[in-house]
Amino acid sequence: MTIALERKDFLRIVAAGGAGLSLGVELVPALAAAAVPAAAAPPAFVPVAWVEMGNDGLTTVVVNQSELGQGIATALPMCVAEELDVPMSSVRFRISPAETKYYNPAWHGIQTGGSKSTPSMSPIMRQAGATARAMLVTAAATKWNVDPATCSTANAMVYGPAGQKAKYVDLLAAAAALPVPATVTLKTPDKFKIIGTRQPRLDVRQKTNGTAVYGMDVKVPGMKYASIEKPLQIGGRVVSFDAGAALKVPGVRKVVQVPSGVAVIADNTWAAFQGRKALKVTWGPGPNAGVSTDSIYASARTLSKTPGVVLRTTGDVTSPLSGKVVTASYETQYLAHAPMEPMNTTADVRPDGVTLWTPTQAQTDSQKIAAKIAGVPLESVKVVTTFVGGGFGRRGETDFVEDAVYTSKAAGVPIKLVWTREDDIRNDPYRGGSVTAMTAALTPDGKVTTLKQTMVSSSIVARAIPFMFKNGVDPLAGNGLTNTAYTIPNQLVDWHRLDVQIPVGFWRAPYANANTFAMESFVDELAHAAGQDPVAFRLAHLTAGSRPRNVLERVAKLANWGSTLPTGHALGVAMGQWDDAWIAMVTEVSLPNGKIKIHRVVSSVDVGQPINIDGLEQQIPSAIIYALSAALGGKITFADGGAVQKNFNDFTVLHMGDSPQFVVDIVRSTEKSTGAGEVGVPCVAPSIANAIFTITGKRLRTLPLNDALNA
Amino acid sequence: MVKLTVNGTDHVLDVPDEMPLLWAIRDVVGLTGTKFGCGIAACGACTVHLDGAAVRSCVLPVKNAVGKKITTIEGLAPVDKPHPVQAAWVAENVPQCGYCQSGQIMAAAALIAHKPHPSDADIDLAMTNICRCGCYPRIKSAIKSAAAGVA
Question: B32–A216: do the CB atoms touch at under 8 Å?
Answer without folding.
Answer: yes
